[in-house]
User: Which sequence fits this backbone?
DNA sequence: TGGGTGTTTGCGGAAACCCACAATGGTCAA
DNA sequence: TTGACCATTGTGGGTTTCCGCAAACACCCA
């Protein structure tokens, strides 16, 4: 995880890149520029934080396609599209696909900076959420096959006796597993376990 | 709840209304037309199902404003905006505010019908989800003050003994409440209760 | 004033849970 | 082969949950 939230500017036009970088710099927003989609794609991973300013029209690969590729490789950075060609269907599609914003050139400096800051804040939240989810998955991965199997049944509200019957093992064994599960997952009751895992399934609204 | 999913067409231009209604009728999609935002607003409540086709530019009240008012009064119907004036910022804002889609005129018949059908399907899902959430809230409302208080603590994973201590009452009393809570909420364990209530906090992604 | 509801409590017992101590057998890699 | 890890089981006992039966008190409404 790069420790500093950075705005990644991807545009084939050096003048636009410089203008954007200068704008952000003047507001103390760290940024980095990329002259082509390929260049950024070669660098980007799932370990960045900040946001992306993406020109829609670039030679070789459209901003939209770059966006798709980023998502495909797990990069969740919020993307703000910049376009000089007011295209409503494209904007609608981009937003539906999860773009953070879609801005027409010429843009208003203050408005754009606000959007960038909003995107960065949004990413920070997402990042924190993903972090805890990741930690949870790690604890989950520590469980052995058998333990996971039994955890399922615990979460289904089944009694130890029932679980033992279903698996054809002694109740005592279930108790041991149960205890180890609570131990590894760092909870002290089935209720806590259930609440912990409910974080995985559903995510807060965008 | 109106039992039939209806597409509500709001447009001040009779020709547009008729064209849309004819288009939908030809695909067996029930629709209803409204000549002004006020007219629809007077009719709409939170008990409709289907979707709304909304012209952006209308005299008296913009489609956007109507959209806001609908949301303000709890109408969750998915809204598809229709606009003749390609306006990217407006489209972006509308989508961010939760519009279902934003379509430029002239529209493609097939594409529009597809969007309408998607909106209707989306609404059906939301409606079902809201229904179960509502039923849950009703059961929750059946709980007395004391029961809710104790439920909180059960969900915090506390033992009956601890709850009794905190509230300064006998353990037996807590047991009685606990039993009644499970009864009213129609669950058989604290785990089930926890899972049930986790449906309230978080909602699935859009 | 009587009935309904909500909150409270006690007794006693069955069932379930939790745990320390102790132990067996299997797999897999060093 | 040996040690690490996993799954398994037993014993015995303390803790917690769950429940039927019984009852007291407060409050509000008809």
Assistant:
């Amino acid at each position: 995880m790069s420790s500093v939230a950075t705005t990644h500017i991807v545009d084939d036009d050096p003048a636009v890149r410089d203008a954007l970088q200068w704008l952000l710099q003047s507001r103390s927003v760290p940024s980095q520029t990329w002259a082509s989609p390929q260049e950024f794609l070669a660098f980007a991973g799932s370990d960045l934080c900040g946001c992306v300013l993406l020109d829609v029209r670039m030679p070789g690969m459209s901003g939209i396609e770059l966006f798709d590729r980023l998502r495909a490789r797990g990069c969740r950075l919020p993307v703000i599209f910049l376009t000089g060609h007011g295209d409503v269907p494209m904007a609608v599609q981009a937003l539906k696909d999860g773009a953070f914003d879609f801005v027409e050139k010429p843009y208003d400096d203050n408005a754009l900076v606000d959007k960038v800051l909003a995107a960065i804040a949004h990413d920070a939240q997402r990042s924190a959420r993903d972090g805890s989810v990741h930690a949870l998955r790690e604890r989950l991965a520590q469980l052995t096959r058998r333990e996971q199997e039994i955890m399922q049944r615990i979460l289904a509200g089944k009694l130890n006796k029932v679980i033992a019957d279903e698996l054809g093992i002694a109740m005592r064994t279930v108790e041991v597993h149960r205890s180890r599960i609570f131990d590894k997952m760092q909870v002290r009751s089935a209720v806590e376990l259930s609440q912990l895992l409910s974080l995985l399934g559903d995510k807060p609204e965008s």
User: Anything to note?
Assistant: The mean pLDDT of chain B is 93. Residues 144-147, 169-173, 176-177 of chain B lie near DNA strand C (CB under 10 Å from a C1'). The first strand of chain B starts at residue 6 and ends at 10.
